[in-house]
Amino acid sequence: MKKRIKVASLFIAAGLLAACGNSEETTTAPKKEKTEQTPETKTDAGIAATTLKDELTIFSSIKAELDKAKEGQAIDWKMVTTSYESKLKGGVSTAAPEIEEVISSALAGVESKELDENIARQLVDKGIQSYFYKLQKATQATAEEAVAAGKTDEATAALNDIKDMSETVFIPTAEKRDASYGFKNEEAIAQAISSGLTAQEEAITAKNVADFNVAKQLTDKSIYRSFYLAALGYAQKIEEGVKAGTDEKELQMEQAEGYGFLLAIEESLAGGDEEAVAKLKDLYDFSKTKPEGVQFKEVESLFAKALTAKVDGYHEETQEALEKKEIDTARVEAMEANMFVIAMKPTLENRLGKEQASTVLSDANDWYALVEKGDVKAEETGKKVIDALDPLN
To answer: I need a surface site. Which of 74, 158, 224, 344 has the fewest CB within 10 A?
Structure first.
């Protein structure tokens, strides 16, 4: 019998509920995400010479150099530019051309003295982090294909790459969000990422494609949650800073930070609402919007509109799969939907109140339990979640 991952443990790790149902996962077939686009993997011959280890090492050295500004020290921009162009630019250009343009423009702006150094360092730092997020998604696809083909060694190698990226890039960022939002224990995003990676590893060992695909959503969407909450949090900081009379350059730096994190998830968000994402980009773009034009309530509403639309879509796809008795597909769709609901927890509490937010999360858990049983009546419970989110759309 194949080793199975209990869905309760995944939901606890994701911070959905402290206590969930105890039903176990069933097996599923590999499935490509419908609304999440997978970036291209690095295939260019000129890029192949640069390993992921090289990229992560260079990122760490670049970040350390950029962070000197926090201590009032001068940044060696020549070192940053040379390091980026020699080891990172090729990969970023291939996987995320728009991000590469942002980073290169920031570096050029500093060189020409047309861009404030603090704004530039945020665009470079967060731009590279966004690149690694897209690379993570591509690597997840590689791992999934390997598991499905029974190539355990290849799947493990790909997962190890994701672990390396998580250790260097994603978990440190998640820990900052955990501190900002007061997430601890089962609510901690960093813990959810680690739990997802462990569950993926167990699924590879068990050669269970179904569990791998479900666990993949815990890992990926927890990283997503971290980037989303980072961008959202900067909107609040900007509004508060304007009221406090904070220097405009500092506020523009925070806009740049929000913009950099948004780059990682904008394509996914656009799958929910393109207009909302276009507006978000304009608000975080300091060349288009002054800091006083960034209103937290508006930003929160735009994010919620896009994320709610994505949840709606996954609920529809889950029900379609259930009616076709494709339980395998339904489980993955349902997990994706719930991970987005978890991401919106702070907004749910802000807009609906803590009690109703708790009810939504509980209903989401109950819905998943019915989905994994293949019960078409899951639609009734799922409708409670959708109806509760409707005011946010």
So the answer is: 74
